[in-house]
Amino acid sequence: MTEGSMMFNPDRPIESFHEDLLNRANLAKSIGEAILKSQTKDSLVIGLLGKWGSGKTSLVNMIEEHIMKISTEVEPEKRPIIVYFNPWNFSDQNQLVYQFFNHLSIVIGREDSSVALKKVGSLLKTVGKISSVGKYFPFVSQASSVSSDVCNTVGEATENFAQMLEKDLSGIRTEISNILKEQDNKIIIIIDDIDRLNDKEIRQIFQLVKSLADFPNTVYLLTFDKKVVADALEKDQPGHGTEYLEKIIQVPLDIPLISKSELERLLTIQLDKLLENIPESEFDRVYWGNVYQSGFKHFFENIRDVTRYINVLRFNYELVKDEVNPIDFIAITAVQVFIPEVYRKISENKEVFTRIATTSDRNKQEHKQICDEIIGSADSKFQKFLLGYLEILFPNLNTIYGAIFYDRSFERSWRVDRRICSEDVFDVYFKFSISDGEISQREIKSIIYSGNDSEKFSEKLLELIKNGKILRFLAIFPDHAREIQESNIVNIISSVLDIGDLFPSDNTILYGTPLRIHIITNSLIKRFSTENERFTILKNSIENSTRSLYSLAWEVDYLDESHGRYHYKKSETHEENLIVSADHLDALEDLVCTKIKVWAENGKLESHKKIIPILQVWKQWGANETEINNVINKVIKDDHNLINFVSNFISPVYSHTINDYVGTTTWRINFGLMKEFINLSEIEDRLNEIDPLNKFENMTDMEKIAVKLFFENIEAYKLDTSQKILPLID
Description:
Layout: H1 3-6, H2 25-37, E1 44-49, H3 56-71, E2 81-85, H4 96-108, H5 115-131, H6 148-153, H7 161-166, H8 169-181, E3 187-191, H9 199-212, E4 218-224, H10 226-234, H11 241-248, E5 251-254, H12 260-275, H13 285-294, H14 303-320, H15 326-338, H16 340-347, H17 350-354, H18 364-376, H19 380-393, H20 396-401, H21 409-416, H22 428-431, H23 441-449, H24 454-466, H25 470-476, H26 489-499, H27 512-525, H28 531-544, H29 550-563, H30 582-601, H31 611-620, H32 625-637, H33 639-647, E6 650-655, E7 664-670, H34 671-675, H35 680-690, H36 692-695, H37 701-719, E8 725-727
Parallel strand pairs: 1-4, 1-5, 2-3, 3-4
Antiparallel strand pairs: 6-7, 7-8
Helix pairs in contact: 2-3, 4-5, 5-8, 9-10, 10-11, 12-14, 14-15, 15-16, 24-26, 26-27, 26-28, 27-29, 28-30, 29-30, 29-31, 32-33, 33-35, 33-37
């Protein structure tokens, strides 16, 4: 995103013609030229009338710019003097009139002005000081007493307060008028944002223009909402507020209403700036058209709506732009800005808006009622299109309100596209940050791009392990497999298999973490069309691995299953769809067997957390009894390795009754499998000898459960040797 598109667009008017997006430049030029060509020497009052957000100040700025441009071609003594006064900046009932004259005197009597204009400036300052007292002007809210305190508040006077009051105000005004009549400089006084003042201040401004400052050669350009001002004047002129206003405003100019097409063009330009660096592949134009036509365009009624929306969108989008679907974020931000109560209620009902419903879903009616209440909380002008709009963003509503159903494949698609309707992404749209344990899209892209260097990729994975994010990464990585360059696949597969044993256990899916690893390697290796290529990748990954053993054994054993080898049932996979051929699978088994032997010889195997499944596949692939017994003997001699060995034989059993909200986990120990590797009495004697439950406080929870299960159930197993696996404790 460019620097310009990151800048916020404050709710401010444009300042120059080059910012004009509403084709009002010609109107501004026409008004500016009409002011300069006006031949009257009398005071002229022009009113620019329009509601808030209609662009009054923007038009005034362009008028001023055009006048200044033309004035550069005129002799200095004939150039117009522009006085820009925004009463909202001086909103103080006792000081507003003073501030007006003080500001007028400064601009007119500046250093480069003629002697005559400097005189006018001095006289105007005097008028301002007198007017601040209030006794001469009934429209000033509170008359001030003649005291030294008042003198100090109105500014440094060259004469004392008593002398100022003795001056004839009418005479001062006459003197100012006489001087200005003889000048060729037209004084253009712009008073903006009058409708932002309170009623009393609005009346002050118009009485000022009508009675006190209607000097010759002056042109007043006033901007306001006619209804607001008329209502304020009505307080002093009951029933005649509009008539009173019409007497003051000699040239009323209604600002043309912005057309719907112009407003949409303005909105589109702002959105284009925001999204200019988003790849086309991430912006579905058909989907955007559906969002736009279904309701997005109906949120905007004036320029201020666009400005307010764009400001919120820019700020929030910067926080999460890599984590969300840009179209969905644009769409939900409109709800946030214009219907905040609906936005809040959507955020509080995640299940309603993200859960895939079925034909037999008993919550369907309940969810429909919630949606009806949410939509009903919006203003009637939004209710007309809100349901259709939300159905585009949240497809699940089509099931709640109709007969369209989505299978689970849509969940993955929505997650990949970072859609708001995805359960995994939904919260980001409302919290503007990712949850703890989640991985940002920026992190994912950084990891993917590091795939050109296997060591760097491994470092990224190790960092994820350290931060507790690796399991989440393994779960979502397949969504991004298509983003991996083919030249990086070898490095990534090699890294994942090399570090796989360091990954924590994932019990959310059958077979846990090893299956996650297989899904990653399988999704990538299938991108190679020839069997030789696939074999070479696996062969090199196994040969180069130094940190893992179980991951390698599991992966090759999974290939055994696809071939229907050993105890696995005959495979239904056609030979041409197998990852490797039977001969190459033999070679991979031999490679892993060699790795296991090396680990056994250097003493690393007996302490491996997954020693039993490794020994099982080793035995399956032809390891002799002596080789396995040598490893077991080493295990038995080491207290910690022994406890780890026992913990390899426990497994969880999950149960859930119809009345339970939370499932129950019990644990079993497989004495039958343990017996295949070692005499149970030998294990029992060693455990009694070391008394681990009382001596080893640093045992893991699984190790404690395993030892406890062993002691509590070994005698029962001896009595009933036919029962290989016993349910034990919660």
